[in-house]
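Hi L.,

As promised, Rhomboid family intramembrane serine protease:
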Amino acid sequence: MSFIDDIRAAFSRRDNALSQLLLINVLAFVALLLVRVGLFLTTGGSITITPILEWIAVPSDPLRLLTRPWTLLTYSFAHLEFLHILFNLLNLYWFGSLVREYLGDRKLVSLYILGALAGAALYLLAFNLIPVFQGRPAILYGASASVTAIIVGAATLLPDYTFNIILLGPVRIKYIAAVVVLVSIAGIDGNNPGGEIAHLGGALLGFLFVKQLQRGRDLGRPVQAVGDWVGALLSGRPRLRVTHRGGSAAAPAASAARKGNLPKPEQEDIDAILDKISRSGYESLSKEEKQKLFKASQK
């Protein structure tokens, strides 16, 4: 199977969101890298990649943004520096795996996209309303806001889950998320204030996303609806709506499920799951047990 076939196969699966997000970031990085090197070899550096980057990065000028609205999404897949994309992809893989396992692919994609939008929104507000940033044209690019949303979302969902970190040992992810937020705050007066502010927008979105989900409200529904529409458009298959005439014993349950009022697990089941965590750790739980634990947290 060729490289192109491998990429096509990765995007043909509906349960492969994390790999798809990672792959899109890598492909975009490689494309920008080739363009940058090509410009250097052909022009000797007299033409840089900046004009091209400005068409996919979020400008701080709202009037220019109106002519490039797609940048609110494309910026979250653009990287130029190797270390920038490396750390983003590592964190996306580690924390995204938790979100995907516990909440599913659609929630992971929603969190990534909403994190990007929230990061861009806070960046635009800051650079147009805070005096110290006004008159300083800037562009925003990179997946950091989306990744920060996923980090904080995972920490809000599973605060006591632990990662084994070299030289530090086991560390609960709520502390990792706290450090990420504090570092972003500390960096606002540094060389990349726009990026750090965008991180904070993503962090706030990640926290609110999970908290609202625990209350039965899915902030990602608009994202999922747009994704379904685009998927149906690309596949050329219209979405079908099935209407049932008459009543059904399953109808109330289906209606409750759509509203987020899923049946709560029994207390005995929760006690057994908590005992299993104390004996073997959270990683030993099955997917069904994790879902039961999450439903119980919605009480």
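Confidence is low (pLDDT under 50) at residues 242-264.

Thanks again for sending the construct details.

K.
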